[in-house]
Amino acid sequence: MNLSRCFLAALFAASVAAAQQPAAPEPPATALTIYNQDFAVARTTLNLDLQAGINCVETNQVTNRLEPDSVMLRGLDQTRDSAKPSFRILEQNYEAAIVTQDFLLQKYVGKTIEFEISPGTNVEGKIIRAPSMNQNQYGNLEQTPALIEVKGQMQFQLPGMPLFPASTDGLLLKPALRWQIETDKPRKVDAELAYITNGINWEATYNVVAQSGGAALEGTEKANMVGWVTIKNNSGANFPRANIKLMAGDVARIQPPQFGRLFATGASETVMVDARNVVTQKPFDDFHLYDLHRTVALADGEIKQVQFLDAAGIAVERSYIYDGAESDQQNYYNGGVNMEQAFHVGDANQKVAIVEEIRNTEANHLGIPLPAGRLRFYRRDADGQVEFVGESVINHTPAEDTVRVTTGSAFDVKGARRQTDFSIDHQHRSMEETFEIKLTNQKAEAVNVKVLEHLYRGNNWVIEEKSADYNKLDSHTIEIPAQVPAQGSAIVTYKVKYTW
């Protein structure tokens, strides 16, 4: 029996069985492990009733963005131990060309159908060419418009909504996986179907509310942090019952070249999920796995949010940082010695960054691995109202590490940087330059500013003169603390000597 005849027989048998038996039981839950790289691993159980010889098996419990070569179908006995497989897969087919308007237009090329111009008003049109997506000479996808003959004239657009004959014969309404499976004797087997699908993603978002009452001074203050997981399903499939886990980390993926992508668009619904079943996490390989501990419905096009973190009374350290050479700093050093006097001494950055630091420790009411995501910072004003004061993106942050986010630039604290001296002694292979950094503060209270300086002219350097002590952060960066009085200014100077 060839494959097409095999499936025709299976479809006929299924229709007869459906007419004679009560509704099928609820399908088993799908286990979804979602990665924050727009893909997921889906696992479900198929109950196979196999006869001796070759069997035709089909399921439509899959997405239309499935990666066919990632599909694995194995008996559960085989997944638990190294027992001999109870069946053998001879052939596997994935059919994702589900019926759409463009698909039907392609099917009816050369035929005449009716188009609805307005309610109750139709016109006949012959489909000369159906719309299609093709790659242009640059590798990008472009749509070729339809060509329709109406009343003896050609037009490059549909005259109305196409009306097709009411028949689904030969049409694929859902994507499907089909197998030819061979077994030596009749047997009932519970098998695990696992595959990778694109179009499912998750991301973490954090809301931090500082309780400073509008003071907004540098130093330590108390805040509350709430973390949310946002899950987006654009896989083209509904999951009525899904057990969801979330994988945090950067998993290596081979990405095929993409010259253009075509997405189906539809309405999205945002659903908030009660978090009484606490989300837990555990290490897995070199990543972290978060478990929602609940069965949820995840519809196609749906956005679902789950709270996974709620910490009160965390300490937040607020500081000001001035990096006058912030722009183009990576151009300082290219493996040799840069001896240009005018190098990077033009207009300096004047903005003083506001940086919030949060220790991710148990003592600070946290101490769990925090997945990468967007962190929004709020502060209560003197009236108790919550005001948004900035946001940033954090990287994956393990326990005992520190979250550092720049929430904006200070309005009343500014900086200026200029080169005041420069000299080169070619005979002694040395170079000296002096910088002056001026900080101004129009606030009603004094502030402490950390001045960052990047010594990228060469590898060998020494600070010969300085107005204040400095901390060496790395081989090319120093940090100079400065206190700027209320409605006043402070000046930081230093002289550096390079040798080669």
Kindly list the characteristics that best describe this protein.
500 residues; mainly beta; 3 domains; 14-stranded mixed sheet; seven-stranded mixed sheet; 3 helices; 6% helix; elongated; disordered N terminus
What does the model show?
There is one protein chain. The protein has 500 residues and is mainly beta. It folds into three domains: 3-97 and 171-198, no CATH class; 101-163, no CATH class; 312-499, no CATH class. It is built from three helices and 31 strands. The longest helix has 18 residues, at 3-20. The model is unreliable at 1-5, 7-20, 257-277 and 342-346 (pLDDT under 50).
Class by SSE composition? mainly beta
Count of DSSP strands: 31
Tell me the Rg in angstroms: 32 Å
- Determine the strand fraction and express it as a percent band: over 45%
* Total domains: 3
Shape: elongated
Quaternary assembly: single chain
Task: Enumerate how many helices there are, as a single number.
Answer: 3
Largest sheet: 14 strands, mixed
Summarize model confidence as the mean pLDDT.
82
Instruction: Compute the separation of the termini in Å.
Output: 81 Å
Query: What percent of residues adopt helix (DSSP H or I)?
Result: under 10%
